[in-house]
Write a sequence for this structure.
């Protein structure tokens, strides 16, 4: 019909050119991405052990509403026991690990996906003899975790 457009034919408004660029962070092997800094899990604290992180998306000028991070826990290591208002998703990509969710433990393996609901007390840990690596997706704007003492 004249005057009607398909979704592929809609006229596009011209806008100012964005300063954002497409970026590729090549995988370099051993769970490291080119251009991504390997950091301590948290700047300080004594409630975690043997864990590193890499913020792959959300820390390099992107305007996403989320962050994609990679964490790796060495054998015997663990994250903070904490709770917060924001939700997050964990996707296992290396080895196996466990997550304490309130009072139960769940094992995560390769490509298992875990949704952690707001206000859930949780800790990720590695009781196995190989590294446990996982992607974690969270909101870019989120509340700070609150430590839980038990």
């Amino acid at each position: 019909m004249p005057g009607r457009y398909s979704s592929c034919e809609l006229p596009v408004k011209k806008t100012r050119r964005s300063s954002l660029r497409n970026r590729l962070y090549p995988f370099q092997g051993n769970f490291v991405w080119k251009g991504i800094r390997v950091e301590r899990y948290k700047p300080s604290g004594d409630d975690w052990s043997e864990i590193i992180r890499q913020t792959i998306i959300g820390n390099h000028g992107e305007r996403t509403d989320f962050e994609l991070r990679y964490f790796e826990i060495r054998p015997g290591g663990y994250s903070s026991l904490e709770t917060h208002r924001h939700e997050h998703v964990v996707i296992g990509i290396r080895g196996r690990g466990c997550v304490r969710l309130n009072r139960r433990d769940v094992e995560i393996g390769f490509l298992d996906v875990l949704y952690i609901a707001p206000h859930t007390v949780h800790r990720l840990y590695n009781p196995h003899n190989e590294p446990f690596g996982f992607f974690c997706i969270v909101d870019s704007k989120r509340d700070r975790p609150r430590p839980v003492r038990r």
Observations:
- The longest strand covers residues 66-78.
